[in-house]
Amino acid sequence: MINNILQGDSLSVLKCIPDETVQTCITSPPYYGLRNYGVSGQIGLEESVDEYITNLVKVFREVRRVLKESGTLWINLGDSYAGSGKGAWKVKDKQRHTYVPDPDSPQIKIKNKDYKSKDLMGIPWRVAFALQDDGWYLRSDIIWHKPNAMPESVIDRPTKAHEYIFLFSKSPKYYYNNEAIKEPAVHGDPNPPRGSIGVIGQKNKGSRVDKKRGSFNGKCKDLVFRAIRDMRNKRSVWTVTTKPYKEAHFATYPPDLIEPCVLAGSKENDTVLDPFFGAGTTGLVAWKYNRNFIGIELNREYIKIAKRRLANVQMSFT
User: Where is this region: Disordered (predicted)?
Assistant: First the structure.
């Protein structure tokens, strides 16, 4: 089970995993009404948002069971707009690996009276609040800012260039390694110190290197140590460019996006779970940082893609 991909629907397969065996779960469930992956039983094609949320709550309730008491859950979700369904997409051309419009697709047709055509449905937050009501501790909302977001043909609202990552914990006290993901501090100095080759300290104004001892002295030494200290707790807006995987005809989050989740949420040799494994990015990052992983995926074609990706890092599968 460890370092393997389990085929089946998430809810059923999760029931086979023992209690409290996973340190963190990092995943991106299918977004509501945006893709038809051509597999029976897939989440995301429910007739109502409420049904979609209910199904996700059931899956993540099982995730909470398999997490250790110190465990965390990181969920990446994007939003959807209400409409007729004619703007939906269906994976059709598997040779070209592109999305093509499916005008007959009904998945975005919202029956709930609370949604009007063109409404932004706020699904990420609705899911987050539902999980909170189910017992999860909602700890952080992280904005994934996409500097290379796809253009949209809309002219009556801004182009969407972000998604969400929600951090949940199973318990009030949990494992979170903030030191592992600290970032450089940003100072608002209008005249930042400059050196001839980009080093800290203005040219000719700091003490020089002691050539005999091969070490810094005076002001230059102080500035170097200040630079080492000038790290801060990671902020909640993460700017990460999207990086499509050429074999995948569906959306995959980039490895850079979830590296902080893996590093902050687990230690070496811990187990990382992804119940919506897709092309295997979570497993790839987990393996890179000496973590174990468990992947669950409904679509056999996606499992083949994930295995090929992971084979590139010399992993073997049964």
Answer: 185-212
Q: How many domains does the chain have?
A: 1
Model's pTM, two decimal places? 0.81
d(CA 182, CA 285) in angstroms, rounded, equals 18
What sign has the CA pseudo-torsion 40, 43, 47, 50? positive
In a domain, 187, yes or no: no
**Side chain identity at 81, as an amino acid letter?**
Y
Domain ranges, residue 100: 4-182+233-316
Q: Are 273 and 1 in contact (CB under 8 A)?
A: no
Q: What is the DSSP letter of 79?
A: -
DSSP 209: P
* CB environment 96-122: b (16+ within 10 A), e (fewer): eeebeebeebebbebeeeebeeeeebe
One digit per residue, the tens of pLDDT, for the chain of length 318 reads: 899 999 999 999 999 999 999 999 999 999 998 777 667 778 988 988 999 999 999 999 999 999 999 999 999 999 988 875 544 444 443 333 333 333 333 344 555 567 888 899 999 999 999 999 999 999 999 999 999 998 999 999 999 999 999 999 999 999 999 999 999 998 655 555 554 333 333 444 444 444 444 544 566 656 655 655 789 999 999 999 998 777 665 568 999 999 999 999 999 999 999 999 999 999 999 999 999 999 999 999 999 999 999 998 865 554
Per the domain annotation, does 192 fall within a domain?
no
238/78 Cα distance (integer angstroms): 15
> Is residue 210 classed as helix, strand or coil in its secondary structure?
strand
One-letter identity of residue 218: G
**CA angle, corner 127, sides to 122 and 128, nearest 5?**
100
**Strand (E) positions, 134-213?**
137-145, 162-169, 183-184
CATH code (residue 271): 3.40.50.150
Q: Is residue 85 part of a domain?
A: yes
**The residue to which tokens 């009556």 are assigned:** 156
Residue 225 lies in a domain: no
